[in-house]
Amino acid sequence: MRDTELLEEAGKIAGEAVENIRTVQGLNKQFIFNEKYAHHLSAPYKANLKQAHIYGAVFAFSQSVIFFMYALAFYLGSIFVNQHLMTPLAVFRVFFAIAFCGQAVGQVSSFIPDVVKSRLAASLIFHLIEYPTLIDSLSDWGIRA
């Protein structure tokens, strides 16, 4: 069975046990429901445990990229200052300009999926507005109340 099916089955078992809690407790079947629940969760747990290290490494790398970029920028800035190509003030100006632009691009890029959805929604709204109706709402013909 797939993980989603196992999780769904575990949810059904938990729901059944909670709905019939008095019967389960009266028949002393708590351990049986617990074992069934744990059995259905063991495969997804093991799969997620294997993926946790990968997700952790990817998350750590994604969080460290900004610091590597800072280190690279200041390293290059120190070279430019030592060669008298830039002043320290100019290095900081360029660094912060690039850093703030990078943050802005990152924040804007998170809205790209929303732009696609909004274009689709706008086209559906315009299609609905332009759709011909069977009743002429501007006509003077008919009974008035």
Verbal overview:
It is a multi-pass membrane protein. This is ABC transmembrane type-1 domain-containing protein. Keywords: Membrane, Transmembrane, Transmembrane helix. GO terms for molecular function: ABC-type transporter activity; ATP binding. Pfam families: ABC_membrane. There is one protein chain. The mean pLDDT is 87. The protein has a domain of 62 residues. Helix content is 81%, strand content 0%. α1 packs across α3. With 145 residues, the protein is mainly alpha-helical. It has five helices and no strands. The longest helix is centred in the middle third of the chain and has 53 residues.
Characteristics:
mainly alpha; 145 residues; single chain
| Oligomer state of the chains in this structure | single chain
Tell me the β content. under 5%
N-to-C series of helices and strands? HHHHH
Contiguous uncertain segments of 5+ residues: none
User: Based on CA inertia axes, which overall geometry fits?
Assistant: flat
In angstroms, what separates the terminal alpha carbons? 64 Å
Structure classification: mainly alpha
Task: Write down the overall mean pLDDT.
Answer: 87
Main β sheet profile? none
Q: How many individual helices?
A: 5
Radius of gyration: 31 Å
Query: How many DSSP E strands?
Result: 0
Transmembrane segments: 54-78, 90-112
Keywords: Membrane, Transmembrane, Transmembrane helix
Pfam family, one: ABC_membrane
Organism: Panagrolaimus superbus
